[in-house]
Structures are given as structure tokens and as C-alpha cells.
Design brief:
TIM Barrel, five-stranded parallel β-sheet, four-stranded mixed β-sheet, 13% strand, 11 helices, alpha/beta
């Protein structure tokens, strides 16, 4: 039996508004990092808790990946957004304090990186609220951005997220410009900063016995990223990146990020911004147009 499929998905909205970017920029770039640490592995299988080699993929972030990325971001004077699960804040508090101290945005990424599921609303709310408490208690920050763990969301949870003060999401793949969600009840939802999956470094740079895949060389990945930037710049869109310090903090992968950012900065007309900056610019443009 073929299930009933709605003619218009929940949260669907019209075309993304063609708001101008600040200072006559041709496009925007949003370098976002998902600081999953060990939660990326524990969420897949809780029995990994006793598998030290598997967990060491995630442990690389606090030991090497994040410090190296922070050092480079300081050198090129770029502020980024770090999406962090609450468990990671509690476990690697100093690493997260260093991110905040450098002036970067920290944003919500669940508690234990649990993938939201419409059948587990109460659990998902607990996961969200527990992470919000971690931000407050350990970092003194109330995040305004949210990236769904494992990239999933649904209307009921999205309403709760909105009502807790989240201004923007960055998970969907359905546009190249920011737009505002319309909830099933017709109310205004959070702003979406859509992701370009081509910028998910996990797809190219991490291979292990749990998810074996080819490792792509620098020339291939950098070519994809550069071509995506060039075409997005021509279209006036947003380049939303999904990077993981346990991938892009590795030596050769770090070089890809370094060279890509150098190219983006060299144009002089690419606005490189945090998620909060982009969302607040969207709100300003909304208000101007009434």
C-alpha cells in the first residue's frame, strides 16, 4: 500500500527572499564546525564506550583538531560557528571555553548527538533542554543557532526549539539562500541557513571500519569546494559548510580548509560570517521590507 504523502511538506515556504548581502558582497560563506568528539561514535552505538580505538577518532578534536583550527582562524581573522553537543561541553569544557574566548559563536548540536525522531518527542525535548543547560552552566552562553544531530528535524520539535529562543537552524538542503520556516500552524518559524552537502568534510575525509569508504585526495575535494564557491558567488547565494575537527583538523584536510578560505578571502566580495551574523542580517532585511 502506498502511504499518503502531503502535497506540500510541513515547514515548506515560498522561494527564499533575494535579500542583498552586506557591503555589496556577491555571496556569503558560513564556515561551520560540528564538534561532535566521541558523541559521533557513541550515538551510532553506545557499546563503543569501551572501544578506545574507535573513540580516539573523536578524542582527536580536543587534543589537536580544534586547537589547530583556532590558531588558523586567528591568523586569518575569521570568526566561525562551532556547533557543539552538550556532552562535549561538559567533557571538554576548556576546549569550548577557548572557542568562546576567541570570539567564535557556539551553537546547539543536541546533547549526545541523538538524531531527532518524530516518535520520540519527549526524549528529543529532554536532549535539547539538557544541552541548553550545559551551555548556560559551563559557558555562560545561550545559543541562538541549532544544527540537528545527524541532520533531522520535525515540526513539533522545531516549535519547541523556536520557543526556547533559537533564531536559526542550519540542517536542510533545499536552497542556496536563507529563508524563514513556516510552521504547520502557519506561524513563523526559525530562519534556515541551508547546507550545501558538498561541504560536508565527513563524506570525503573519514574512513573507518564502521563506515568504510574511499579517502578523497586534496585536489579532488578542493576542486569541488572551489567550483561550488565560484558558482554560488555567481548566483549570489550562501556557502554553508559542515566541517568536523576530527576530519578537517587532520594535517592534509586542514590544508584543504586553509587553501579554500584563502581563495574565498582573495575575492574581496565574499562575506565570511557566523550563523548568528547571517541570521540577524536576514531579520534586518525582513523588517525593512515589512
Amino acid at each position: 500500500m502506498i502511504p499518503d504523502i502531503p502535497t506540500k511538506p510541513a515547514n515548506a515556504s515560498g522561494p527564499a527572499p533575494d535579500f542583498p548581502w552586506p557591503n555589496n558582497a556577491k555571496c556569503a560563506a558560513f564556515p561551520g564546525f560540528d564538534v561532535d568528539a566521541e558523541t559521533a561514535w557513541l550515538e551510532k552505538d553506545p557499546t563503543h564506550v569501551d572501544r578506545l580505538v574507535t573513540l580516539s577518532f573523536g578524542g582527536y578534536e580536543a587534543r589537536v583538531g580544534v586547537p589547530k583550527l583556532l590558531e588558523h582562524l586567528r591568523a586569518i581573522n575569521v570568526k566561525s560557528t562551532f556547533f557543539i553537543p552538550g556532552w562535549v561541553i561538559e567533557t571538554y569544557t576548556k576546549m569550548c571555553e577557548d572557542i568562546v574566548r576567541d570570539g567564535h559563536e557556539v551553537a546547539h548540536h543536541g546533547y549526545l548527538h541523538k538524531r531527532p525522531d518524530p516518535t520520540s518527542f519527549d526524549v528529543d525535548v529532554e536532549e535539547f533542554d539538557r544541552a541548553m543547560d550545559s551551555f548556560k552552566r559551563h559557558l555562560g552562553v545561550k545559543p541562538v543557532g541549532y544544527r540537528a544531530p545527524s541532520g533531522e528535524n520535525y515540526d513539533r520539535l522545531m516549535k519547541h526549539i523556536r520557543d526556547q529562543g533559537i533564531l536559526y537552524l542550519s540542517s536542510l538542503r533545499d536552497d542556496i539562500r536563507p529563508y524563514r520556516h513556516v510552521m504547520q500552524d502557519g506561524s513563523a518559524g526559525p530562519i534556515e541557513l541551508p547546507i550545501n552537502a558538498s561541504f560536508d568534510d565527513w563524506l570525503y575525509g573519514l574512513s573507518n571500519r564502521i563506515s568504510p569508504r574511499p579517502m578523497f585526495p586534496k585536489e579532488h575535494v578542493l576542486s569541488i569546494w572551489n567550483d561550488e564557491l565560484d558558482q554560488t558567488r555567481e548566483w549570489g547565494g550562501l556557502v554553508s559548510m559542515v566541517m568536523h575537527p576530527q576530519v578537517s583538523g587532520r594535517p592534509m584536510r586542514f590544508g584543504i580548509f586553509r587553501d579554500f578560505m584563502a581563495r574565498a578571502q582573495s575575492y574581496g566580495d565574499v562575506w565570511i560570517a557566523t550563523g548568528e551574523q547571517i541570521a540577524r542580517h536576514f531579520i534586518q532585511q525582513e523588517q525593512k521590507r515589512g
